[in-house]
Amino acid sequence: MRQYPVNIVGAGLAGALLALMLARRGIAVTLYERRPDPRCSRAEGGRSINLALAARGISALEHAGVMDKVRPLMIPMRGRMIHDLDHAPALLPYGQREHEVIYSVGRGALNRLLIEEAARHRNVTLRFEQACLTVDPAHDVMRIKDLDSQRVYEARLAPTIATDGAGSAIRTSLASLGLIEEREDRLDHDYKELTIPARDGRWAIEPHALHIWPRGGFMLIALPNTDGSFTATLFLPKGGEHAPADMPSFATLGDTASIQSFFEREFPDALALIPTLIDDFFEHRQGQLGAVQATPWHVDGKVLLLGDAAHAIVPFHGQGMNAAFEDCTVFDGLLTADPDWTQVFAEFETRRRPNTEAIAQMALENYTEMRHRVLDDKFLRQKSMALELERQFPTRFIPRYSMVMFHPEISYAEALRRGGVQQYILDALDETTQSSGNLDVAHARTLIEAQLPSIK
Ligand code: FAD
């Protein structure tokens, strides 16, 4: 029987990596992408937008055999450098072992590399400037628009993997046919990217950290780029008629004077680092934030949603790409020489859904932590107590942040579950530590051994 190629729609981070994994198995792949070929154009317009890459993403890139080429794009970040208004910046380490770091990596450079690697395989056909418009599983077709000629044509659908991102046209098309349900939960906060340029060819602030200016209701963050610059991102409420008048918001930052005085008041040290603040503010788009849910993720063996198309999350745990890459590894692991796509798609959803729901929840919780709790004494006390408990009970107590970022062998769902138990233990120990001044290790041992089975 003739084996049809697998269609992948969307050559973003997940689509390009998945194409590479399938190609390495000898599976024929046709990759459709709306944007122009990034190998021929400067897709990001010269700006460097970066992402935090952690262990789950790295383990997927290793699985695809590309880590040696990705490594030069990575800058290690050892912790959060907290810039509060009254003190000198202070580093809050992410972990306590040498390798417990996360990495800043340029989105454009990583995406281009993955496309180049996929393109090396003769069984991969790359089709750029092709926008998928709709899918029709009943007639086994998808409609695609060639953006150069504006011609709309049909292609065979089954099997198609939709990696067309958070605004997935395929997801919306399936929902409009009543084949799946989709839900988008928009956050009341938007974001804006700003540039901290290199100073004399070097980074103007510590490069091996993720910088945060937490201000309670909002925050600024900055991640380093390999060219010595940083990409800073302001996360701020949208505002508008129903927002309290005294709350800073994008709606209140409509002109040069208001932007300038907001930065002078809230981020004076960052202001000195962003000479193009006003231009950046007006030229860069105000991005929206939100989470996407879809049920189910597949229609028979014809089409499957994967990555952000299935489960986009808010970016505050730095895990959207990492989760999408982990999707690719799990999907690849389900393949046999002659895959039954209906079974593979269903099994993929069964394995991944509990985990992507868990990281969606933890990512939302992390927003409060980043913009607010990192300034709170109790939070800082419990953070260092958690690290001490990890030193004493390394196979049982691993801080939740570390489980998510450094332990791909622990699923997101398990990290969420154990994290809840650990928080209960931290609260119990915090009370006694507060009154006696010392961590009660015997009490800690009793609680931990009773509730946290060893994971190694
Ligand atoms: P995308 O990367 O969005 O790729 C989708 C692709 O599909 C694109 O190439 C697009 O052009 C193409 N496409 C779209 N529609 C069509 C169509 N109709 N036809 C054909 N092609 C189409 N994650 C992290 O792990 N760490 C971070 O630090 C991090 N920071 C973030 C910061 C911000 C501000 C945001 C918004 C997100 C962040 N993320 C981060 C999340 C991360 O960007 C996404 O999870 C990741 O890009 C998902 O990959 P994807 O391939 O599923 O989707």
Explain what you see.
This protein is α/β, with parallel strands linked by helices and 456 residues long. It folds into three domains: 6-75 and 107-184 and 291-366, FAD/NAD(P)-binding domain (3-Layer(bba) Sandwich), CATH 3.50.50; 186-288; 376-451, no CATH class. It is 39% helix and 22% strand. The protein is built from 15 helices and 19 strands. The chain has helices at 13-24, 55-63, 67-70, 107-119, 169-176, 256-266, 268-271, 277-283, 308-311, 320-333, 341-371, 377-392, 400-406, 412-436, 441-451; strands spanning 6-9, 29-32, 50-53, 75-77, 79-82, 90-93, 102-106, 124-127, 130-136, 141-146, 152-156, 160-162, 181-196, 210-214, 219-224, 230-237, 287-295, 298-299, 303-305. The strands form four sheets. Strands 6-5-14-15-16-13-17 form a seven-stranded mixed β-sheet. It has a six-stranded mixed β-sheet with strand order 8-2-1-12-19-18, with helices on both faces. α2 runs parallel beside α10, α10 runs antiparallel to α11 and α14 packs antiparallel against α15. It is globular, with a radius of gyration of 23 Å. The model has no long low-confidence stretch (mean pLDDT 94). Bound molecules: flavin-adenine dinucleotide.
